[in-house]
Amino acid sequence: xxxxxxxxxxxxxxxxLGCSLQLTAQTKxxxxxxxxxxxxxxxxxxxxxxxxxxxxxIKFDRKDLKHVNGRTENQNSYSMLITVNMKYSYRLDIVNxxxxxxxxxxxxxxxxxxSINYIKKENAPILGGFMAKDGWILITLKPKIKLDFTVGGLxxxxxxxxxxxxxxxxxxxxxxxxxx
Length: 180
Known about the structure:
By secondary structure, the protein is an alpha/beta fold. It has one domain. Helix content is 31%, strand content 22%. The chain has helices spanning 2-26, 42-56, 97-106, 124-128; strands spanning 35-38, 65-68, 71-74, 81-84, 88-91, 113-119, 136-141, 155-156, 165-166, 177-178. The chain is elongated, with a radius of gyration of 23 Å. The model has no long low-confidence stretch (mean pLDDT 86).
């Protein structure tokens, strides 16, 4: 009888240890390094970003675009994911140069920006998934700034501005959508 109780206690102890190890493995966090740009550093960062974005428009070729599962991807991807106020997301390698210029002039105005978080290419997919594979820029605007977020081909989610939106689908009539 004593031997049976000892076995029972031993099995219970092993089970408790196993559960606690599983819980600690699930609660481990990974710190994602990012660069915070604020104050007087915003203007040079934005100027550099604008120059890069506008020079990248030379690479755009509509033939490189494919439409898969409700979004447009560039087979020769070169654009970072840019998110404004955690509501409006843009990929600029899937829109033509005129829309990119509109975006740069409207959104990338250093006077309207409170802070920028830049997550490098190596770490961005951990948080942003496939869309952030070339890096991720998170822009926080100053309070009470009114902008036209529909620049860059952005469409509001479910037609409601307050829900945010993205420009991830740039399919034109007659172009094929691949569903997997």
